[in-house]
Amino acid sequence: MLAAADAQLNRTEETARAVATIRRLDPTFDPQEFGTKFLNVDDLEHLREGLRKAGLLAPETGHGR
Asked: Where are the chain's structural domains?
């Protein structure tokens, strides 16, 4: 969540630190699964947008979901 939030706020140094911590603590982190329990689809998409900005989730290709 921190990496996504920092990325949404364009805090590049903080984002990089959070991403490094995620990769160190959980090398099997799956950004596609993270947050899937959110009940609000808009909240999940906002999280995923932050994860994309942080470099943890591949950019959307425009081929639908």
From this structure: 2-53
Q: Assess contact for 56 and 29: CB atoms under 8 A.
A: yes
Residue identified by tokens 């982190």 is 29
| pLDDT over 80 (residue 65) | no
Amino acid in the structure at residue 64:
G
- Is the entire prediction scored with pTM above 0.85? no
> According to the model, what pLDDT value does residue 60 have?
78
Structure tokens at 19: 């991403």
What tokens appear for 49 in the block? 């947008």
**Number of Cβ atoms within 10 Å of the Cβ of 61:** 6
- 31-58: string of b/e by CB count within 10 Å (b at 16+)? beebbeeeeeeeeeebbbebbbbbebbe
pLDDT tens-digit series, residues 24-35 = 999 999 999 999
